[in-house]
Specification:
alpha+beta, Major capsid protein gp5 fold, 6-stranded antiparallel beta barrel, 6-stranded mixed beta sheet, globular
């Protein structure tokens, strides 16, 4: 007869099969959930990497002819070779032997037992981590920048603030130039406290916060002295860019003269300004001029939703029957913005950085999944935790992981509006 540990391992897979893990992940990751799992047309997967074509310009195989003229010959799209590597998103569930024993009893904790609760929490936290990576970072792994340090902790700079950090995350603080120099006592440590209003974080152990200085970066890592080269997944803020946040896109330098079409349309300003209908229309028209494509999705945080309602369409909410709509501007019940040449749905992600609004041509985006989120099951899902001296602990752990990344094959068909006033930051 199988022992309790094997029985519990089987029970975990029955109650939380791989498909159930995916569902929980996507509840916390609306951007990830909406993306189609695919590779671009013509893309090839070689040893896990995806090689695909990035579009600089569409072929213009058109002409006017008279009777008897030659037909227009066919040219190809102007393209570059992109390369996308999947990354590993991984979560660990940890539980003690006695807690595990209580988890199977009728006296166990809420939500069907402690094991169920911890599994749901781990999966949910991993979903939030993936979402914040995709919509909140530039693809370099930076989740915060240090504004200042003192004996009491690190103050994190705006506009990111502590939005992409959570209490308990294991972080490393490094130099802001090349992310190589680790700040002593601030490497491989967990966040002990985090205060959003003051943007102050402290870490466990005996840290010397003044080892860090302004513009240092905060990364989430699984260990101290972790190599971060080619570690992190792509982020929307780096894929939709003109070289300010990310010089390279899928391995290609977008700042060279030949690759100017790899730059997205970026609207910024020396001073923060309110979101306006004129600004939305203007940048959508710029995308159309730049790429021939239309914007059909908008992704932003809660602050720009407030600004949209206040400054773009404060008095034009209306119910449209029969699934039809007129061609006027404004928004409907689900915040779809209509204007000449555009119909774009506003999507909310709480992990989007304040003062930014991203406008996407959704057809140019894809989600490459080499392995969906699933349990790491090597004959047994129960693994005794390893102690600091190499001995075992009276705890067991289970692991889940996915191999995935996001990509964009036509960055010029996308845009971002920066330097927007945002009520989240008190603007």
């Amino acid at each position: 007869m199988a022992g309790e540990f094997q029985n519990l391992s089987v029970a975990l897979k029955v109650v939380y099969p791989n498909k159930a893990l995916e569902a929980i992940i996507n509840e916390e990751a609306p951007f990830r959930a909406k993306l189609g799992k695919s590779v671009p047309a013509g893309g090839k997967v070689t040893e896990g990497d995806v090689k695909f074509n990035g579009v600089l310009a569409m072929p213009q195989n058109v002409a006017q002819i008279v009777d008897g003229d030659d037909l227009q010959d066919a040219g190809e799209r102007a393209e570059v070779q992109f390369n996308l590597k999947p990354t590993i998103f991984q979560g660990t569930m940890d539980i003690g032997w006695l807690t595990r024993k209580a988890a199977n009893s009728g006296k166990s904790a809420f939500n069907g037992g402690e094991v169920r609760r911890r599994t749901t929490e781990t999966t949910s936290n991993l979903g939030k981590f993936i979402e914040s990576t995709y919509v909140g970072t530039t693809g370099n792994g930076v989740r915060a920048y240090v504004e200042s340090s003192s004996a009491s902790g690190l103050v994190i700079a705006q506009p990111e603030g502590v939005k992409l950090l959570r209490q308990g995350m294991k972080i490393t603080v490094r130099d802001g130039a090349n992310f190589v120099t680790e700040r002593a006592t601030l490497n491989g440590v967990r966040i002990a406290t985090l205060t959003p209003s003051t943007r102050l974080i402290t870490v466990a152990g005996s840290p010397t916060y003044t080892n860090s200085s302004a513009n240092d970066v905060v990364l989430v890592t699984s260990k101290a002295a972790q190599t971060v080269t080619s570690l992190f997944a792509n982020g929307m803020r780096g894929l939709i860019d003109d070289g300010t946040n990310s010089q390279y896109i899928h391995g290609v330098d977008r700042t060279t003269a030949a690759n100017v079409k790899l730059k997205s349309v970026v609207s910024t300003s020396g001073t923060n300004r309110d979101l306006s209908e004129a600004l939305l229309i203007r940048i959508c028209h710029e995308v159309r001029e730049n790429s021939g494509k239309r914007i059909n999705e908008i992704w932003t945080g809660p602050g720009q939703f407030e600004k949209y309602i206040a400054f773009v369409a404060p008095d034009r909410s209306r119910v449209v029957s029969g699934g039809t709509y007129d061609k006027g501007t404004g928004y409907k019940e689900d915040l779809v913005h209509y204007a000449p040449g555009m119909a774009a749905k506003l999507n909310l992600s709480f992990d989007c950085i304040p003062r930014e609004l991203h406008l996407l041509n959704w057809d140019s985006w894809f989600h490459y999944v080499a392995q969906e989120m699933q349990w790491v099951d090597d004959d047994s899902m129960l693994n005794l935790a390893i102690g600091t001296a190499g001995s075992y602990k009276a705890r067991w752990q289970s692991f889940m992981a996915s191999f995935e990344n996001i990509g964009c094959d036509m960055p010029g068909a996308n845009a971002v509006i920066r330097a927007l006033k945002d009520p989240v930051l008190g603007d």
